[in-house]
Amino acid sequence: MTIRELYQEIGGDYDQALRVLRVEKLIDKHIRRLTQSGVVDRLLAAGESMDAVRLFEAAHAAKGVCGNLGLSHLSEMASELAEEYRPGNPRRMTDEQVRRKLDEIAEAYRRAEAGIRRYEAL
To answer: Which residues contact 52 (CB under 8 A, 6 or more apart)?
Structure first.
């Protein structure tokens, strides 16, 4: 499997990652590190406590990391939560809607993580 094939499999945008990171070797390096970084895990853990500060910080971090890696779907979902919990913004989602969004993020991340593990095994 090539890095482009990985991106196709996990629904990522390879060209976006290339625009940001500029070199395929860096894309390879950072996509492999995603599963070890814990950035999405921290967001999911923050969701368990529904702590507004932790949710904002974790969602903002996940948005950036996933966006830089061309994982637009994950980045967009994390961005929704970051805006929901951005200090000074009024809440628009119920706690149940936030939990559903976190479940969607967890599922999308599991698919990406499984693809990355298959890629790493080659």
So the answer is: 85
The topology under which CATH files domain 3-115 is: Four Helix Bundle (Hemerythrin (Met), subunit A) (1.20.120)
Q: CA 41 to CA 48: how far, in whole Å? A: 11
pTM above 0.85, yes or no: yes
> What's the average pLDDT block by block, 10 residues per block, for the chain (122 residues)?
97 97 97 96 96 97 98 98 97 97 98 97 90
Q: 56, 82 in Cβ contact below 8 A?
A: yes
The answer to whether the beta carbons of residues 58 and 46 sit under 8 Å apart is yes
Domain ranges in the chain?
Answer: 3-115
